[in-house]
Amino acid sequence: MNALAWGIMIMVFMYTAGFALKLWQNKNKAGSIAVFILALAIAVTPFFSVLNSD
Membrane-crossing residues (predicted)? Predict the structure, then answer.
């Protein structure tokens, strides 16, 4: 189950970061920064909730 959570987290992070890159390429800098911050939140949040439970 832990490996499944890691896999989903990595896939969602990569998809969101890729979208941020596309926004940056389309000259939408503010949107790109906001989406990248969201991607970082997606990567960090499971450490405090799902993956921290023993």
Answer: 6-24, 31-51
